[in-house]
Amino acid sequence: MFFDLPDEAKALQESVRDFARSEVAPVAEHLDQTKSFPYEIVAKMGELGWMGIPFPEEVGGAGGTSLQYAIAVEELTRIDSSVAITLCAHTSLGTQPVYLFGSEDQKQRLMPDLCAGRKLGAFGLTEPEAGSDAGNVKTRATLDGGTWTIDGAKQFITNAGTDISGHVAITAVTGTDERGNKEVSNLIVENGTDGYEIGTAYRKMGWNASDTRPLSFTECQVPEENLLGPRGAGFKQFLHILDIGRIGVAAMGVGLAQGALDEALKYAKERQAFGQSISKFQAIQSKLADMATEIEAARLLTYKAAWEKDEGRNFTLTAAQAKLKTGRLAVRAAEEAVQIHGGYGYIEEYPVCRMYRDAKILTIGEGTDEVQQMVIARALGA
Ligand SMILES: Cc1cc2nc3c(=O)[nH]c(=O)nc-3n(C[C@H](O)[C@H](O)[C@H](O)COP(=O)(O)OP(=O)(O)OC[C@H]3O[C@@H](n4cnc5c(N)ncnc54)[C@H](O)[C@@H]3O)c2cc1C
């Protein structure tokens, strides 16, 4: 067993940590309050090569590993979840489908701008009647004369409606297979395509500076070559994309919990009560100790999932376990951090207040806790 991070991962960790502290922390509260998308930060992260960390240099990526990617996501979330989810959804959900299933032509056309952060990618799986039950997709795409015509709706989609959004990869029913089952395929729809409408951004509990919108498709026509991979492979493809996405969201859970601990420890040392700093009270120390221990366990599980992916092993079980563990931890750690701040924790000037609101989605997005439990139980053979 070897627990030291590889040198490249350590170097990236330090760079992202510095960037998050110097460039993101000073504006995070303002972006959250004004619900402003972090364009300048995304542009800088693009220039640094961080919008395409796990993709090879030949397609415009940074040639990094999944472990490096997870560490970058963790360090960003330690400071701000909106910035982190923007990079995370762009990489795992928006860009991976093009890289993994796209044709050479699609990759050449889309990957360089995606990896440089000049364009953002989105992934449209969820629909009004298809969330956890993702197979219940109702959006339809019909092929006629070399053109797909798409009709349907998607909801809660990240990164689709910004000024730099380039495309959304959507799942659609494209027919019926020989056994009479739904044939599901994935298609690329580029922003600006006629019939592709991007709705008003949702008013959310958290992730306020991240872009989340409903999408609709009305007789929306895209060329036949916008199909991603073989026709009918959509179900298998999106399950794989969700597995990859869970590593990123698990890294967000570790980062948020670590950020909450950082803030709680700092505050506990400063705050005086009964003639001493509250960090000297055993009740506060127990909370800090539990948080630190749980975070370390969750981090190891998350890095293991990323490592398994990098080694080319099956990582479905570990990614689901990491996602389940870290989402719950983030919620609990944010709550404890608010508790340690007392009344100040309820006031927006303190980052733990935003962290508390940002944490909850980590038990819902990218598959709810109950869905992770189903995936884990299936892997156990239950
Ligand atoms: C801010 C935000 C960003 C998002 N970004 C994206 C995105 O970019 N792309 C995208 O495609 N989606 C995105 N989503 C959607 C997200 O992945 C879904 O909301 C999530 O998967 C849950 O689906 P649902 O909301 O339809 O809930 P439902 O599936 O309706 O679930 C409701 C409840 O029922 C439970 N449940 C459902 N089925 C079972 C079962 N079989 N056993 C036990 N319990 C069950 C669930 O766990 C949950 O508690 C985003 C959501 C949010 C809020």
Task: Give your account of this protein's structure.
It is a single chain. This protein is of the alpha+beta class. It has ten helices and ten strands. A four-stranded mixed beta sheet has the order 1-4-5-8. Strand 4 and strand 5 form a beta hairpin. Helix 1 runs parallel beside helix 3, helix 3 runs antiparallel to helix 4 and helix 6 runs antiparallel to helix 7. The chain is globular. The site of flavin-adenine dinucleotide (FAD) has 23 residues, from helix 4, strand 1, strand 3 and helix 10.
Pick out its properties.
382 residues, alpha+beta, four-stranded mixed sheet, binds flavin-adenine dinucleotide
Gist?
The chain is of the alpha+beta class and about 375 residues long.
Class per helix and strand makeup: alpha+beta
Percentage of β-strand residues: 15-25%
- Give the count of helical stretches: 10
Quote the distance from N terminus to C terminus.
Answer: 30 Å
Q: What general form does the structure show?
A: globular
Which radius of gyration do the C-alpha atoms yield? Answer: 21 Å
In this entry the ligands are:
flavin-adenine dinucleotide
Mean pLDDT: 97
Order of helices and strands: HHHHHEEEEEEEEHEEHHHH
Helix content: 40-55%
| DSSP strand tally | 10
Uncertain segments of ≥5 residues (pLDDT<50)? none
Largest sheet: 4 strands, mixed
User: Taking strands numbered 1, 2, ... along the chain, how are they ordered across the largest sheet?
Assistant: 1-4-5-8
SSE layout:
Layout: H1 7-34, H2 39-47, H3 66-79, H4 81-101, H5 104-115, E1 120-124, E2 140-144, E3 147-158, E4 165-176, E5 182-190, E6 196-198, E7 212-223, E8 227-228, H6 234-270, E9 272-273, E10 276-277, H7 282-310, H8 316-341, H9 351-359, H10 369-380
Parallel strand pairs: 1-4
Antiparallel strand pairs: 2-3, 3-7, 4-5, 5-8, 6-7, 9-10
This protein binds flavin-adenine dinucleotide.
